[in-house]
Specification:
The chain is about 75% helix and about 0% strand. It is mostly helical. The chain has one domain. α2 packs across α3. The longest helix is centred in the last third of the chain and has 28 residues. The mean pLDDT is about 95.
Length: about 70
Amino acid sequence: MLSCKEATRLMSQAQDRNLGLAERVQLEMHLAICKGCRNFSEQMAFLRKACRAWLDRERRLRDGES
């Protein structure tokens, strides 16, 4: 079983690369039992979505769109 430290490392790495099957399975198993890591995962997803929205808005403003 993954530790929380290993799980958060995998969640971070998943932002930059595709995780292997074994890594995904281990991470999903950990997330199924660890509320703290599930919260961390949800927070990362929220921040990723917010950053993308901000970048899209900046691009539209730069290009003269509303």
